[in-house]
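Data card: per-record layout.
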Amino acid sequence: MPRHVARRDPRAHWVLLLLGLLLLLAALTVNGLVTGLTGGSGPSTAPTAPAPKEAADGGPVLRLDRPEPVSRRMPDRTVALTFDDGPDPEWTPRLLDVLRRHHAHATFFVVGSRVNQHPELVRRILDEGHELGSHTFSHTDIATVPRWRADLELSLTRKAVAAATGWEVTLLRAPFSSTTPTLTATQYEALRNAAGSGHVAVLADRDAKDWQRPGVPAIVRAATPEPGRGAVVLMHDGGGDRGQTVAAVDQLLTGLSKQGYRFTTVSEGIDAPPSTVPAGVGTRVSGYALRATQTAAGWTAATMDALLAVALVLGIARLAVQVACAQAHVRRARRPRGPRPVVGAPVSVIVPAYNEAANIAATVRSLVSSDYPALEVIVVDDGSNDGTADIVERMGLRGVRVIRQANAGKPAALNTGIRAARAALLVLVDGDTVFQPDTVHRLVQAFADPTVGAISGNTKVANRRRLLGRWQHLEYVIGFNLDRRMYDVLECMPTIPGAIGAFRREVLLAVGGVPSDTLAEDSDLTMKVLRAGWRVVYEETAIAWTEAPSSLRQLWRQRYRWCYGTMQAMWKHRHALREPGAGGKLGRRGLPYVTVFQIVLPLAAPAVDVYAVYGLLFLPWSTLVLAWTGLLLLQGLTAAYALRLDRERYGPLWTLPLQQLVYRQVMYLVVVQSAVTAVIGNRLRWQRMARTGEAAALVGVGVRPGQPV
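The structure for this 709-residue chain is written out next.
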């Protein structure tokens, strides 16, 4: 039904959204690499040949930029303590304190990503006379990764150190390397490649294996060189609890110093020039950019973690409230009651129709077949060009009136019917909806309470034999009807669906009829009724069968209108937030709920999906499978509970996993499109769904709850 002259829907935001999601994925990927979520690249477990004999039998300091390897050893009674995996904010300062107390120097092989996290510690290392070396950027085994990745790891580490200190490092200890006899051919080749960029390899004579935390005495024994000999000792200042390492270093320095040992850096020990060289301006600037990128990536990951935590808490809280309210609603609606007034006052059913030839006959026939005793049916033809009015007139049914008008939109058609209605109780029905014989009777019984101004019925999807129909069926049962039970209990119903709703005539006249200034006139009208001080309730047994969109294109058009119109209605009634009574309950309960769960969280959903892709790249598959299974189990239990409440079969539950992969994305992209349209001030035209007549064909007249559809 045409309503507004609209500009073309905005599209540039899709490009911006895609770019934003790609940037988010890139930031999360950077964070995954630098924080070691993959553990870097672990050591190869494949069998490999040993390194050349001249390297394996030589000293731990290897210069490999020449045809033949050149190795050096520590002089007698000279120990070069070396520490890998730092800097660590807890253990590196404690080790530096021990070294300073003993007037000893050491060499720290730092991980580039941790240098960016703690640049002040790297500066302290140099300021106190110690030496720096590279331990790659993300603790990656450079023997198991492609050459370009190994070169990048070393280059990034040099840039990180340059930004933190103004110097570049040339010493290198490859992760997962140890003593020279254990050096493999692949590790040797990786070190030769690294020599091409100016790196000198440093292995060890003594591996303390302190990362195993075998106890302080065991670490001291493993780190102690043979009597009178010198050694390069491998230990760690990061990567875990290094309390035993700190204590062992203290004992080692105390004991060996008494035996005449000196503790120095690797370069000083072999009488080589300083291993650090001044960094160029370009290298330092690149290092600053690298640190900024890593910091931003860390903030992004932390924000996403917080977002997911909040979403999880909100989701669990929502489910708990829904279930609690649904139980309360069921107890209230189904408990045995004593005698109460039976509402039998005349009812006028108003059917606005625009090109409803596919379904209108079934709709009208289902209404006149109602077992309600005093019923008139008013079909308002809103300028149809498919013979809708002619079909109804040819039916010649008693109690049915047809009113023709020029096309003016659904709200105008409803208002025409309201003015023409004779009864004090009005039921508004869409032209593609089929009632059961008892629907009208069950729908209006709540009017026995004089405080009730409007009643929502229970809308069900008729055309659910295809996959898309099943998804919408689950959505109606899980989301729409569970929510309506909750809204009823909390007295903040924001929407009576256009497919089935009952109103007091006096209420509609008091609020000015059906509004036409939003595209969700059903939500707009319901909010007006609440703000006028009336109660709005939900009647689960008043069932209406409606035809849902049968293609993704039609689904998009329908939900786009619904979502955009809901945003309009919420903005229009935002002042309900500070009102008393029923309007205040809408403003302080209903509107915040809709804002969070129908707008804010769907807008965040694309980022959540990117986080899921990030998880596929970096998180253990066992964790992902457990999380995905847990989520599906929770959703499945919720769906089963909702189906049970609505007396529906459990068969469609098998489509739930597929719904998460396709349908969910369509729904949140609709919210994105609607939000952008609202923000830029575009006017959305009426998005009418093409009818196929499936509701009429599948349901017919006289269907009762629980019957197969």
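Known properties of this structure: The longest strand covers residues 535-546. The domain at 53-279 is CATH 3.20.20.370 (TIM Barrel).

See the next section for split statistics.
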